[in-house]
Amino acid sequence: MKPMPMNRARVVFLCASLALLMVLLSGAVMGRARNSEPAYGGLKVFSEALHYVQNNYVDRVETGTLMDGAYQGLIGMLDSDSEYLAPGETEREKDPASKGDTGVTPLRRELSMRVLSVRPGSPAARAGVQPGWYLRFIGDRPARELSAARVTRTLAGPLGSKVRCTFVKPGDPKKIELELEREAPPAQPIVSSSPLPGISHVRLLRVEDDTLESLRRVLKEMPRDQVLLLDLRNNAGGSYDDAVRIANLFLADGILGRLRDRSRERALYEARPRERLWSGEVVLLADRGTAGAAEMIAATLRSRGRARLLGEKTAGVGCFQEVLALPNGGALRLSVAKYQDPNGKPWHGEGLTPDEALERPKTGDKAGEREDPILDKALEILSAGRRKAA
Fold first, then answer.
1. How many helices (H) and strands (E) does the chain have?
2. What is the pLDDT of residues 74-127, one digit of tens each?
3. Residue 310: phi, psi to the nearest 5?
4. What are phi and psi of 75, to 5 degrees?
5. What are phi and psi for residue 185, nearest 5 degrees?
6. Residue 234 lies in a domain
7. Domain-ending residue, one of 50, 77, 104
8. Residue ranges, the chain, pLDDT below 70
9. What is the pLDDT of residues 242-267, one digit of tens each?
10. In this structure, what DSSP letter does residue 122 have?
11. How many domains does the chain have?
């Protein structure tokens, strides 16, 4: 029988089981474990296992490759955002040439890479990619071997360049191969309109500093008696600091959020009274692609009783990462703390359950042929509420 070729997936598989032992090893080597004996015992087992692989595995494998696989296996067992960066990667990921993307935000769950969100109007959205799809391959490389952050970097690249992706729909084994051209994110971070009398619809496409400034301008021009539908669907990633500042536009005082690690509160975000611009009614619209900074906006406004939440349960992404240097020149990007709502409740891994659920139309439904049936349903609910109040 012809020996199976060694590839990166098998290296990671071989080393992932060994990597658990490195949790103990790290505590002993860094002098942070209360009892070092179990850690050194784990180090001995790891050393023996490494020796056996080096000397008995059917194919010769470089020690550096094995160790990289062990590091990746260790961090890969934590969460979607934590990752091991090989020497030099921390600088390469800052490459200014990588200004284009496909509009896909990935999330690793249960040993698979899924599409967390798809930015409206992006190449992926125009190709029909939907949140919840599985991302199987980027080119010929299995996406499940990578961290979510590494997939994001791999999907990014020079404007106009293309990347081949293979997707699979849940429950359908048929592969969908797409070649997506990388484009710049839209210049405008928000889209606003007045779809019905007395209702303003503002969709946040991202949560960054320019989002805050754009939203300020819109709120200043909006009639005070309007109902504001703040649309956070398919909004993942972004800046938590800017999320807090956006929430402050709707709250004059009190706590806006917290950041806590395993033993202490790292940060307490409080409202600045002069920053509030909108005192009228606010309703939030979210979906399973709402994550990270957008979830923080929703968690803050909902927990403070400032807004209702319509739509779907959100993704449940709310961790803070630090980059920790390693002696080999590499680094760990490690989730070290969780963001919390003003009441001290984290949403990471849990998501936010809407006050009123709005289900997506099933494939083949006539409603699914409309441009945005979920938005239509939300507007219908708000319009009925205004009629009832009148």
1. 10, 17
2. 787 788 888 888 887 776 666 555 589 999 999 988 779 999 999 989 999 999
3. -110, 160
4. -70, -30
5. -60, 155
6. yes
7. 77
8. 1-42, 91-98, 362-370, 390
9. 999 999 999 999 999 999 999 999 99
10. S
11. 3
